[in-house]
Amino acid sequence: MTDDRPPAVRPGGASRALARDGLTHVELTWIEKKLEHWIRFGRIAEDRILTRRTRVVGFRPGAIFAFVRWASNDFGTIVSRIDVVRAVAANEPYTTLPFVRPGGDILLKIEGWPKVSQVLAAIDAVEAAGVDPCDAAPDHWRHVHQRIAAGQQPRLYTAERHTAWLKRREIEG
To answer: Which InterPro entries does the UniProt record give (predicted)?
Structure first.
């Protein structure tokens, strides 16, 4: 007798890794002056080197990180992008994002070097206020996205705003 049932589908390596360790994995590549993917901020829970030019970093659920992608060809920059993402738990909904497995809660998504440089300046301003950007309120990154997309300057993230965020988070549990 033959068994007509299709073979069981097994998840691929990245999916299986998420199920096993519960982390959000980001693939980083660095080919000087051609393709550069890096993390601008975030608390990396795992770091695996795959090749001289490629590594995979992992973030715990709830961690916020900034993922920068830049690429060029013989004629100049062809991609310049930054995403601020919140890593999700296994049971949470998420949005897919290239090089991020399985995906995440996208708080900010900006393309084009002039706008990306504004986001990098906003990150620097958060650091200048004495706050680690991965600890800043997720709503701040949404605000930065909306203001830059509308062609306006985002409001600064101050120590007072951060204190208010911490109190709100404490009350909400």
So the answer is: DUF2840
